[in-house]
């Protein structure tokens, strides 16, 4: 390898976004706002492994799904075990609930997670190979009120960051009692169509997926396909009607999309997706649903569950598309110290340290930048206050506090500056 080649610059893997300032504070603001809403609704944090036994996803998510059959980052570790970078969170949560007997206590078990997931998808705007989700799972109670709570919570997550230009789509996929009969009806319909070999094969493995085919000619052929909503048994229909009724009562707007197809196999009954039209092709900003057979499939009790995964990356893109500001995310620190001269610098370092100790976000200029250069630092940090300390102030035992929003300046005794700023910041809120 040539010397030049050896030191060629490296970039992040294809399809993997970096979040660096000034975008990274927006990323945290969205992620943390979602987590806060989940905690407000009584969900507790679960920290999941980033990689799991490959079988977990094969069994949990479904071998016929694109996620499992084409998109997993699977490799043998040094002990020759097949492990997979988690493509989603639900299977891992259910595995952990079973492993730690959480389902033997108070039900539902309500858990919240956040972090990166990995899918080897074809990268494009809003479609990444490392994607970030905030998710919740409520396990152990088959109550439609829980479905409504979860859906309303997802809606509130988006509203809490100021997003509004999305719609909520809803359907029911039935359960193990009514779905098989529907599946047969759908297959009967599909097999009578002049489908190509591959689509016919898909119809035999997972007929619902054919309804999701984006090719206009297939869409046209399947326009009159039988729909699950028309084949729900009484229990599933009542369940779905209770969910929609509760959403009406809560004022959560939705549209019914009987042709919705989720990319994971575990779903039963209520399924939903949040769709934003400002993102181009990758319009799903979040989704979820009920998964009543999953726990048993993973070796646990036969308990039901429901949850969602909200895409943080796509929510950020949607916020950009809507031009929504996230308050406070431009501000790096509240207070920025500018000291002129060696002695003043030493004193400023102590003041900044004390400010941080008092819970005030503070930073100062370093190096010999002069007043003008150092004040630029205050601007770049979008600080609310600048502290200026020169030889004269130091001799007098004072410090200048500049209010950068009001363009006012006061002189404060050095000994009082921490308290002064604490109060000023509280009033400025
Ligand atoms: P999902 O629909 O596969 O569901 O993913 C949830 C959200 O993650 C999507 O709506 C989207 O916003 C985001 N997402 C997925 N793939 C990508 C990607 N390649 N690039 C960027 N964002 C992406 C699940 O993962 C389920 N575990 C959700 C759930 C929880 N269902 C029940 N409980």
Automatic annotation (TrEMBL):
GO terms for cellular component: cytoplasm. Pfam families: HGTP_anticodon (PF03129), tRNA-synt_His (PF13393). L-histidine binds at residues 88-90, 119, 133, 137, 262, 266-267. Residues 29-327 form the Aminoacyl-transfer RNA synthetases class-II family profile domain. Keywords: Aminoacyl-tRNA synthetase, ATP-binding, Cytoplasm, Ligase, Nucleotide-binding, Protein biosynthesis. It is found in: Cytoplasm. Coiled coil: none annotated. It is an enzyme of class 6 (ligase). One of its GO terms (molecular function) is ATP binding. Signal peptide: none annotated. It catalyses: tRNA(His) + L-histidine + ATP = L-histidyl-tRNA(His) + AMP + diphosphate + H(+). It comes from the Bacteria. The keyword Cytoplasm applies. GO terms for biological process: histidyl-tRNA aminoacylation. Its EC number is 6.1.1.21. Its main location: cytoplasm. Belongs to the class-II aminoacyl-tRNA synthetase family. Homodimer. This is Histidine--tRNA ligase. It comes from Corynebacterium uropygiale. The gene is hisS.
